[in-house]
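User: Can you fold this complex?
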Amino acid sequence: MDRLRLLRARAQLAGMRENVGRAVRRSFSNSVRADDGASWHWPFHAGAILALSRDERHSILDGNVKRVLSRTFGIDGDPSSKAVLAHLWDTVRGVHTDAGVAAYTQAIMDLGATLCTRTRPACTMCPMNEGCVAALQGRQAELPGRKPKRIRPSREATLLIAQTGSNGSSAVLVERRPAAGLWGGLWSLPQFESAREAIEWCVTEFGDAVELRSLPPIDHAFTHFDLRLKPIQVQCGAKAAVRDGAERLWYQLNAPPRVGLPQPILRLFERLRTTGMA
Ligand code: SF4
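Assistant: Here's the predicted assembly.
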């Protein structure tokens, strides 16, 4: 009985191996057929393996080959972009013949890895130098093209330092920020679109407000954008300080309450304290 089970298990294992092998072979040949210029690695690897091991006519286009072709044929643009990549695939398919595929494949990969390097191409020793666009036009440094740099978005806001008191007993108004978003849940100075809007708000809220000065901007980099905060310091009337609440409080600069502040705001308060501007 045990022997029967063993035989059955062996037969199942053999069947599974055969199925897996068939699936891998099918996937491999599909990948080579799918060598259509898409930015996949698998078609490149499959093509390179077949070209080198069986001398079959398959194209390869790794980073080294892209660099050699971009320079030799003067192909501008970022090789990872769809259009340039398609151009490179067309070019690479056009340059090799049916004969000597393995030698060509090895040669173009070696050329890119040893002579046509990214920063120091050895053009005087290179067998391509007489017909190479980059070498003839002195454009080795600009080919292949680079990915265009993404311009980081930037925002600006006015930061209101509304203060009461003076001579070491100043308090500045801070508000709790919404739980979601920038500095979520922390306490910070109120922000406005402009200095004018900030002062008008002060007058409405506290009755009187006198602008004292503008302070140097604070630049802060968030993950997806840069923020420039332009602080203005405003002196509010004595009555303003009575309006503390759950979402708003007057922060005593010389006896700070235990609330969480963003680092740039903490540094600003420290500057106000140490320079005696509050
Ligand atoms: S001549 Fe220079 S730039 Fe052109 S392929 Fe050779 S090493 Fe590269």
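The first helix runs from residue 2 to 33. Strands lie at 154-164, 171-176, 187-188, 191-192, 209-214, 218-221, 226-236, 248-252.
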